Amino acid sequence: MNDILIHKTTDFFQQTFGSEPSKTVLSPGRINIIGEHIDYNDGYVLPAAIDKIICFAFEKNNSDTAKIVAIDLNDEFEVCVNNEQKQTDSVWTNYLRGVLNQLKMKGYSVEGFNCVFSSNIPVGSGLSSSAALECGFLFGLNELFNLKIKPIDIALLGQKAEHWVGINCGIMDQFSSVMGQENKVIKIDCKTLEFEYHDANFSDYSLVLFDSNVKHSLFSSAYNTRREECEEGISIISANFPEISSFRDCKEEQVLSLKDKMSANVFKRSLFVVKEINRVKLACDALDSGNIELLGQLMFETHEGLSLDYEVSCAELDFLVNTVKEDNSVIGSRLMGGGFGGCTINLIKKGQEEAVKNKLSKLYQDEFGIELKIYDVKIGNGTSLYIAK
Ligand code: GAF
């Protein structure tokens, strides 16, 4: 599947600019097994890069102008690389403008270049196409101009570019896109950025994503509000328990004891975060010991918390999770990513995948009149240079 995308991208580059690209970069989307809305709360997350990617082709052009073409969008833009970039109405270009600004602010100098890219990561599905865009673009410029930026710093610069665009995100998406490894999930400590790879062995179960095919527009404002509510939560907790500076050191009982000192929303968000941090630790142990049933149960619990306490679900996602919960072949399901639409991630008994997919597609269509999209997940490598065989 990715071979077709790579050829399409490099052929397009050749036809547009009349030469072969000197660098071709593959930049993946990500899934997250568990640990949602936890990265910006100093907790642990368990994501992985996937085999859906953006392919970029780059070449220097001996000028001070960057010419960038988005093949799938049939759109392009040009900027002078020496200028400070401003936000525009064209959202996809803002991610790349944000990257150029970050490089400039950190003192990295780039010259003019040509770039084309194409993607098979569904946009708005919670698979983090934006992190793949920022980090793949950065990775390519790093290679093209020999900037010597370390992989983790590529992730951090990508995150800053996303903040510039307007989402005050954590580090999970960029980190997993850059650092992913085939058939491994990454346990990231989002406070220290220490990380470990764990085998992505789900035993008798397959990972399947159900894409609700909706994206409710309150995503970015609600995301930033959740972050602010959590900041308020931890500051109230620290004021009352001075030994605690981070949710990871906090116990459920301590949050419960502060119910009267917090607004209803801040209380619910804080409780969710403390429970979710614990769930990730349990889930990682369950994965390591092959107790996939326990992992699945924890995923259902996460969904309930995201829906009732963190309030980032929606009718479509709740329907997808609640429907498969009644099916014995599905042992875990939850909304994945920021919420308000996008995908659920599911663990389905091997051999039963098609039956579950067919049944759910029909029920979803009947309930909402929306076509369910389905992706079978393969865990792939992080951002890399493509070397033609
Ligand atoms: C989005 C953000 F970009 C991530 O940083 C993370 O917070 C996620 O939502 C929720 O877990 O993908």
TrEMBL record:
Domain GHMP kinase N-terminal: 94-181
Enzyme Commission number, as recorded: 2.7.1.6
Source organism: Flavobacterium psychrolimnae
Pfam families (alphabetical): GalKase_gal_bdg (PF10509), GHMP_kinases_C (PF08544), GHMP_kinases_N (PF00288)
Ranges of residues in domain Galactokinase N-terminal: 12-58
GO molecular function, one term: ATP binding
Protein's name according to its UniProt entry: Galactokinase
Origin superkingdom: Bacteria
Residue span(s) of domain GHMP kinase C-terminal: 286-364
Entry's Gene Ontology BP terms: galactose metabolic process
Keywords linked to the UniProt accession: ATP-binding, Carbohydrate metabolism, Cytoplasm, Galactose metabolism, Kinase, Magnesium, Metal-binding, Nucleotide-binding, Transferase
A GO-annotated cellular component: cytosol
Classification via InterPro entries: Galactokinase, Galactokinase_CS, GalKase_N, GHMP_kinase_C_dom, GHMP_kinase_C_sf, GHMP_kinase_N_dom, GHMP_knse_ATP-bd_CS, Mevalonate/galactokinase
Family the entry assigns: Belongs to the GHMP kinase family. GalK subfamily.
